[in-house]
Amino acid sequence: MAYKVFVNGFPLNASELNTYLMKQSIAVFVDATARDAGITSPANGMLCYLTGTHKFQGYANGAWVDLN
Question: Over the stretch 2-59, which tens digit does the pLDDT of each residue have?
Fold first, then answer.
């Protein structure tokens, strides 16, 4: 996934918002059920935190895996 430095005065397209901000943040959910409902099409490299189990997870090769 690419990295972008935004510049004042240039428009921010929805595709840029989704790629550069939404997919590069750590989403917080209570559990895996809430995560799966909130992220229906995960992409490799996405991260999340599950508050119910205090676990960070990453999405890789079609599955969410614990990072800690």
Answer: 677 788 998 888 888 877 777 678 889 999 999 999 999 998 988 999 999 999 999 9
Quote the tokens at residue 20: 């550069």
Q: What is the DSSP string of 26-58?
A: EEEESSHHHHHHH-SS--TT-EEEETTTTEEEE
Q: Is 63 helix (H, G, I), strand (E, B) or coil?
A: strand
- Residue 6, domain member (yes or no): no
Which uninterrupted H or E stretch holds 16?
helix 14-16
- Is 4 inside a domain boundary? no
**Domain count along the chain:** 1
- Answer whether residue 62 is part of any domain: yes
Q: 26 lies in which domain range?
A: 14-66
pTM of the model: 0.69
